Structure formats: C-alpha cells, structure tokens
Amino acid sequence: MNAPPPLTLGTIALSFHRAATAVTRRILETHGHQVSVIEAPHEELFRRQAAGEVDVLVCAWLPSSHATYLSTFRHQVRVLAPYYTPYCLWAVPPYVSETVAGVADLARPEVAARMTRTVDGINPGAGISRFSADMIGAYGLDRAGYRFAPGTESGFLARVERGIAQEEWFVVPLWRPQYLNRRHGLRQLHEPKGLLGTVDAACPVIRLDALERIRPEAVTRMNALRLGNEGVEELDALINVEGLTPLQAADRYLATRPDPLP
User: Fold this and answer.
1) Are 200 and 86 in contact (CB under 8 A)?
2) How many Å apart are CA 42 and CA 69, to the nearest integer?
3) Residue 77 gets which letter from DSSP?
4) Interior CA angle at 251 toward 247 and 252, to 5°?
5) Per-residue confidence at 116, pLDDT binned at 50, 70, 90?
6) β-sheet bridge partners, residue 118
C-alpha cells in the first residue's frame, strides 16, 4: 500500500489547543500520515487555512468564539463532531469574598477598592478577549476604574500564578477547558447579560481538498474522539504543571485509556 500523503495541522497558539492537536496528530500518524504542525494566533490561523496552508485546524469553537473567522470559507471545509464543549467565564480566586458573586459586584465601591482593576487577558483575537473588552463597558466597570488589557498566554499564566501567590483580589478572564481551573479552584462569577457567549462545540475543521487525501479510517476516528473538558484540562495540566511537551502529554493520556483512539 502506498504511503498516504503528508498533512499539515494548524493549532491556535495556546497550550490546551496544542494538547488537542497532539492527540489528533497521533491518530493521523497511526494511519500512516506524516504530520507537520504550524501554530498561529486565532484569526491568523483561520486565514492560513482559508489560504490552503492548513489541512486540519484543531479546533474551532463554534458558534460563539470562532464562527466569524470561519464564515468566509465555511463552504470549503468539513466540520467534524466536537472533541469537547468549551465556554468562557470570568472568575476570581477562592479566597475573594463570596459576596463577590457576579460581574456586577465588581463595580461596588467597597469591592472595587480592593480589586486590581486591570483585567489581564490573552491575545485580542481570542473570544474571551473580545467578550471581556465588551463587558467592561456593559457592566459600567470602566466607571469604577477597570480596563481590559490583552497580552500573551505566558504573560497571562504568570500573572495569575503571581496574583494567587500574593492573595491578590483580581479578575481572571478564563475559559474551560484550562488547567488553572483545576489547579486553583477558581470561582466563576455570574454573568447575566450573556456577553461571554454560549457553550461552544470545539470541532476539528478539515479542508475538503485535504479530506480527499486523508485515510477514511483516520477521519472516522477523529470524528468519534471525545476528549471532554476534563480530558483537555488533564492534558493541559500535564503540559503546564508537569512540564511535558504536547506530544508527551498526548502519549501519556492515550496510554491510560482502554480504547485510546476511538
């Protein structure tokens, strides 16, 4: 049998996306494909898939976070079943008073006086960043001195770890799955305006011209894979807490599953 053609996977440049991409890579490699991986920020990665540089994008969060990026070339791809069901949230560390139960509470004078009013996030193309920037005005937090500041993943993670170590009162614009949830027991804030989007479906996206080159059994396995939010957070913790590479994390995760490649 002839070797199947090589494939290019695209991953958003965040650790939990790298984790899901590594599992996908192992599935494709099991079926004989040589796989290379490129990574980029959210909007850029979708542009690169539209341009034909990315065969399989892992994963698009649909519909809230990434549908706008996929809409221009949706007719050129097949969207597989979701690996997990992500959603965005704002949270505070567990030592912050439970009287801070919702986003609106952040504007109360006695709360704002204690909170760090710079809300640090990840890159501006992320759904959580777009949503968070809108929330500052919608909840009147700007009038209480808050502002949203996008940044890098590494800067965001370091900022959260530093803030918790110092028992600082601060807001974490977060999402599930993300390893910080299980590491620090962060408490989600009530957000009644619905500005953080819905629960999304995190789906691999395959270009139709690439679909013709991928072995059908590999597509079937990818379409059946269900990592779940807990599984992705487990992978993410292996990378960020235990220091494994994404492929090492994928191998350890898959080795513990009785039927690792559905």
Assistant:
1) yes
2) 8
3) E
4) 120
5) very high
6) 147
Going by the DSSP 8-state scheme, the letter that residue 38 receives in this structure is E
Q: What is residue 257's predicted lDDT score, i.e. its pLDDT?
A: 76
Q: Which structural domains are found in the chain, ordered by start?
A: 7-85+200-255 (3.40.190.10), 87-188 (3.40.190.100)
pLDDT at 1: 56
Q: Enter the pTM of the model.
A: 0.88
Alpha helices in the chain (DSSP H): 15-30, 42-50, 67-70, 109-112, 127-138, 153-165, 179-184, 208-211, 216-224, 228-240, 246-255
pLDDT at res. 259: 57
* Number of Cβ within a 10 Å radius of residue 134: 14
Rg of the chain's alpha carbons, rounded to an integer? 19
Kindly report, residue by residue over 8-43, the tens digit of the pLDDT.
999 999 999 999 999 999 999 999 999 999 999 999
Residue 202 near residue 82 (C-beta atoms within 8 A): yes
Burial of 148: CB neighbours in 10 Å, binned 0-12, 13-18, 19+: buried
The residue assigned the tokens 């957000």 is 191
Structural contact between residues 76 and 207, judged by C-beta atoms closer than 8 angstroms: yes
Q: Please give the structure tokens belonging to residue 179.
A: 């390893």
Q: How buried is 85 (Cβ within 10 angstroms: 0-12 exposed, 13-18 middle, 19+ buried)?
A: middle
Burial of 75 (0-12, 13-18, 19+ CB in 10 A): exposed
